[in-house]
Amino acid sequence: MDTKINGLTKIKNKLLQDTNISILLFIFIITVITLGGILGNRFFSVGNMQSMGYQISEFGFLAIAMSLAMITGGIDLSIVANAGLSGIIAALTMSGAFFPIEGMSEMTVIVISIISAVTCSTLCGLLNGFLIGKISIPPILATLGTMILYTGIGMAITNGESVRVGISSFSKLGSKTFMEIPYIFLLMVLAFIVVGFILEKTKFGREIYMVGENKVALEFSGVNAEKVIMKTYALIGFLVGISAIIIVSRVNSARMGFGDTYQLQAILVAVLGGIDPDGGKGKIMGVALSIVVIQFLQSAFTILQFTPYAKKLIWGILLLLVMTINYLINEKKIFNLKK
Amino acid sequence: MNKILNRKIKPMEKYLMLILVVYIGIVSMTSKNFLTMNTLIDLLKSSSGTLILAAGVLVVLISGGIDVSFTAVAVVAAYCSIRISMMLGIDNLFFIMLVSIILGGIMGAINAIIIQTLKISTFITTLGTSSIFYGFMTTFVGTESISVADKPSALLAFGSARVFNIPTFFILAVLILILTWFILYKTMLGRTIFAIGNSEESASRVGINVFKTKLFVYTYMGVLSGIMGVVYFSEIDLINPISLVGTELMIIAAVVIGGIRLTGGDGTILGAILGVSIIQIFKSTLVFLGLSTSWNDLFIGLILIISVSIISYGERKSNKEKLIFTK
C-alpha cells in the first residue's frame, strides 16, 4: 500500500516538474482517443501507421534542426531552402551531371551522392553559423538572406525545373521496411536519441543551452560562444541534409520549393514541444512528442479531406494557443515564487 | 542631395546608389529597350505596391519588431472589401478603399494586442496570425477569383488612371512615403517609435506608453496593407486571392537591404526606397541581360547578405572597441 502511494507521488512529482511534457502527454492522449472515436480503424490501421511513419521521418529531421536553432535563441528560416538545394545536388550527382557515372556500381554512385548532399547542406549550415556567430547578424535576418541565396542557387542551376533520379535502387532505399517499420523512421528515432544525448549529457550540449540563455555570461566564463554557434548551425545543416536525401528518395526527384509548408510546421512543432523561442529552454523529448501529435492530426485532416487552407488555419490557431498556454504557465510560476 | 535630405547620406545608401547606377548603365548599354518611357512607367507602376508595404515594414522594423503577416492582411482586407462591395452593389473606389483600410487596421491592431499581452516574439506571433487571417478568409469567404468582366468598374478605372502620364498608384505611394517620413521624423509619435526600437525598457521608464506606440505601429502596417491590397487587385486583371501571399520575406529583404540597423531603432526612408528599387529593377531587367528570372533570387540573396554583413560587422567592431556586450 505504502509503495503504491510512493509510486503515485513520484509520478505526480515528475509530472509537476515538467509541466510542458505533461501537458503534451495530456494533449496526445486526448488526440488519440478523439481520433479513435471519430475515425476508428480507418486511422489505426497498419497501412496508415506506415504511411505516417514515412511522412514523419523527412519532417522529423527538419523539426530537430529548427529546435536546435531555437534553443540557441535563434531561428533558421533557411532549412527548407537548404534541403531543396542539397536534394538537387544529390539528384544531379545521380543523374551524372557533375561527372560520368557509367561504369560505376549503383551503390558507389548512391554513396557519393549522399556524401555530396550532406557536405553541401553542412557547408550551408556552417555559412549560417559564420554569419550569425562571426559577423553578428541577427539569426532571423542572416537566415532570411541565406534562404533567398540557397533558393537562388538551386533555381539558377536547375532553371526551376525538377531533376529526376535515374537510379531505381535509390528510391527503394526510402521505402524499405524492417518488420513493417520503415528504416527511415528508425533513422529518425536514432537522430532523436543522439541529439537528445548531445544536449543532455555532453559539454557541447550544455554550451548550446547556455548560448541561448546568456551568451555574454558564457563568453565571460571562458567558452568561445561564437564557435558553439557555428558548430550548432553546422549540425543543423547536417540534419537538414539527411532530410533532403530522404525527401529525394521518397519523391524520386528534386526541385526547389518542395516542402514549403514545412517551415511553419517546424516552428509550430518546436514551440508546441516546449522549446522557448527566446532560447535556453526546452527538451528534445518534448519535440518528439509534439511531432507525433502534429502528424496524427495531419493524417486525420487528410482522411477527413480538409483543404490545405483549413489546415493552415488550424496550425495558426494551434501555434498561438500553445504560446498562450506557455505564457499563462510561466506567469503562474512567477506568481508562486513571489509568494 | 545632402541639402534636400537635411542630413548626410549614409555609406550604405551610397553603395546602393552606386550599384543601381552601375547596373542601370550595364543594362541600358546591352539593351536599347530599357531606357524608354514605357519601361520606366511600367516599373513605377509595378513597384508602387511594394513601396507602400515597404513604408509599413520600415516602421515595424524601426520599432524593433518584424511583421510577416502583411501580405495576408493585404489580400484578406482587399478581397473581403471587394466581395462586400459587389454584394452591396456599391461600385465606388473610396468605399472599397475605406472598408479595406478598416479591415486591415483591425487585423494590425489584433497583432499588436497579441504581441503586447503575450509578450511573445513578433515573428512567431505574426506567423501565427497570418495563417489565421488567411486561413479564415479562404475557409469562410472562399478563394474564387474574380474575372475582369465581374470586377467593379471603379477598380478598372483606378488601374488605368494616370495624372500627367504618371500612374496614380505611384503618386499614392509617394504620398504614403511622405506621410511615413513625416510621422517618423517630425512627430512625437515618431520619436517614441525610435525609442522603443532602441530599448523598450528605457522607453517605458521615461514614461513612453509602449503599448500605445506598438498599437500604432502594427495598425499603421495593417492600414497600409489594406491600401496596398486594393492597389494590387486594381493593377492585375484577374483578382486571385491566392496570389501575393508568400512574397512577404522578399519585401522585408528589400527594406533590410536599404541599411536598417537590424536590432531596431534606426532606418531611413531613402534606404528603404533604394532597397525596393534594386529588387524591382532586378526582377524586371534580368531578361534584358539574357538571364532567366531564376537568377533573381541568387543576386538578391547575395546583395542582402553582403549589405547586412557590412552593417553588422561594423556594429560588432565598434561594440568590441567600446566594450559593449550585447546578447
Helix content of chain A: over 70%
Strand order of the largest sheet of chain B: 1-2
Order of helices and strands of chain A: HHHHHHEHEEHHHHEHHH
Mean pLDDT of chain B: 83
Could you say which structural class the secondary elements and strand pairing of chain B correspond to?
mainly alpha
User: What's the quaternary structure here?
Assistant: heterodimer
- Distance between the ends of chain B: 37 Å
* Count of discrete structural domains of chain B: 1
Binned strand content of chain A: under 5%
| Overall number of strands of chain B | 2
Question: What is the C-level CATH assignment of chain B?
Answer: Mainly Alpha
Shape of chain B: globular
Q: What can you see in these coordinates?
A:
The complex is a heterodimer of chains A (339) and B (327). Chain A is mainly alpha-helical and 339 residues long. Chain A has a domain at 69-259. Chain A is 77% helix and 2% strand. Chain A has 14 helices and four strands. Chain A has helices spanning 2-17, 19-39, 46-71, 79-94, 106-133, 139-158, 168-175, 183-201, 203-213, 215-220, 225-251, 262-272, 284-303, 308-338, and strands spanning 163-164, 177-178, 181-182, 253-254. In chain A, strands 1-4 form a two-stranded antiparallel sheet. In chain A, strands 2-3 form a two-stranded antiparallel ribbon. In chain A, helix 4 (79-94) runs antiparallel to helix 5 (106-133), helix 5 (106-133) packs antiparallel against helix 6 (139-158) and helix 5 packs antiparallel against helix 11 (225-251). Chain B is built from 14 helices and two strands; from the N terminus they run H-H-H-H-H-H-H-E-E-H-H-H-H-H-H-H. The relative contact order of chain B is 0.18. The longest helix of chain B has 26 residues, at 37-62. Chain B has helices at 2-5, 11-30, 37-62, 70-88, 93-118, 122-140, 153-160, 168-186, 188-198, 200-205, 210-235, 248-257, 269-285, 296-321, and strands spanning 162-163, 166-167. Chain B has one domain (2-321): ABC transporter involved in vitamin B12 uptake, BtuC. In chain B, helix 4 packs parallel to helix 6, helix 4 (70-88) packs across helix 11 and helix 12 (248-257) packs across helix 13 (269-285). Chain B has a two-stranded antiparallel ribbon with strand order 1-2. Chain B is mainly α and 327 residues long. Chains A and B meet through helix 6, helix 10, helix 12 and helix 14 of A and helix 6, helix 12 and helix 14 of B.
